[in-house]
């Protein structure tokens, strides 16, 4: 399953979802841009707040990964160390 590839596959999925949403809503031909919603200053502020919120959530998840690894390691050190040797990457295969 996904835990054989990365240690935190749900975070990988959340990151891919966020990237997809940014591409979908940020592209020049997106409904958000074509509808003129972002021409309204109040709605533009709301969109920016949502974007900033997403960035904060993403950063907090990245920071949380190390804490989760340490917690699991403290519960079952030998098993976690064996798993970490096999599954070397936390979030992105071949990168991190």
Automatic annotation (TrEMBL):
Entry's transmembrane regions: 42-63
Keyword terms, alphabetized: Membrane, Transmembrane, Transmembrane helix
Record has Membrane as a keyword: yes
Gene3D superfamilies from the UniProt entry: 1.20.120.1630
Protein name: Protein-S-isoprenylcysteine O-methyltransferase
Lineage: Eukaryota, Fungi, Dikarya, Basidiomycota, Agaricomycotina
């Amino acid at each position: 399953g996904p835990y054989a590839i990365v240690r935190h596959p749900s975070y990988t999925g959340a990151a891919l979802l966020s990237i997809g949403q940014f591409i979908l809503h940020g592209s020049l031909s997106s409904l958000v841009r074509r509808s003129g919603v972002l021409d309204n200053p109040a709605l533009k502020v709301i969109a920016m707040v949502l974007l900033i919120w997403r960035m904060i959530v993403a950063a907090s998840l990245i920071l949380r990964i190390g804490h989760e690894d340490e917690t699991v390691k403290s519960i079952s050190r030998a098993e976690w160390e064996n798993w970490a040797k096999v599954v070397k990457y936390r979030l992105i295969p071949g990168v991190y």
